[in-house]
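Write out the 3D structure for:
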Amino acid sequence: MGAITQSLAGRAGLLTLLPFSLAELQAAGRPPVAVDTLLQGGLFPPIHDRAIPAADWLQDYVATYVDRDVRQILRIQDLIAFQRFLSLCAGRIGQLVNITSLAADTGISRLTAEAWLSVLEASHLIFRVHPWFTNLSKRLVKTPKLYFCDPGLAAWLVGIRQSSHMSAHPLRGPLFENWAMTELLKARLHNGLRPHLHFLRDKEGHEVDALIETEPRKGHLIEIKSGGTVASDFFDGLDFWRSQLPGHHFQPWLIYGGDARQTRDRGTTLPWSQLGPLLEAIAANR
């Protein structure tokens, strides 16, 4: 965009196209065989349409696009520090962004860390999800959360090279949450809609992973759990925030790592491989 000499105001439409969605792989007859395969391999097109081993392709992707192109944009001299920064970001997926801590652990200044994050976000390697504010704003946290645009890239950066290593890895839960958040993001962006993706968390720790407002005071509340079976406490965050938002009509959903769809009073439970009803409602802006 920076190399374009003419103004395209009023003459161009811009679409943000992230890696494949799970629904696209399913429609193509190439669904992942298991959720851990999905989390380790990610959804970049060449891994699926050319059957390139995920670890091999991601290694080359980091070495070319990330280490060369993004580093060149930032004019980074210390490649090791930049690689450490990327890995530290991957290790913090789903967490509130603490730029001071991230900079200190990398060995760079806070201003440098902010600049690197901004370029990674503009390059569609990461995205930040900001909290949703209400009249309860004094009680809410105001720091965004950090996610990668592809869970496979984050998994590679933290050293996961095979799907068999995923089940016992301490970041499996955050990687599952990261993947689900990208699916919500794609449901909006791939249909030309603004993301409107937020989360809710107060200073006492009551949290719900995702909130999408489709109309004023109306939308979806979504909790994400990687467990293969549904526990009753999975709905606690949904119950709390629905009670705290009178006059708002947010439909509750639970995305989990199991296989059975369930409809409960506390929310509709969707297995990882059957997100269609939720994503269709989000894409239709209803």
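The chain is about 40% helix and 15% strand.
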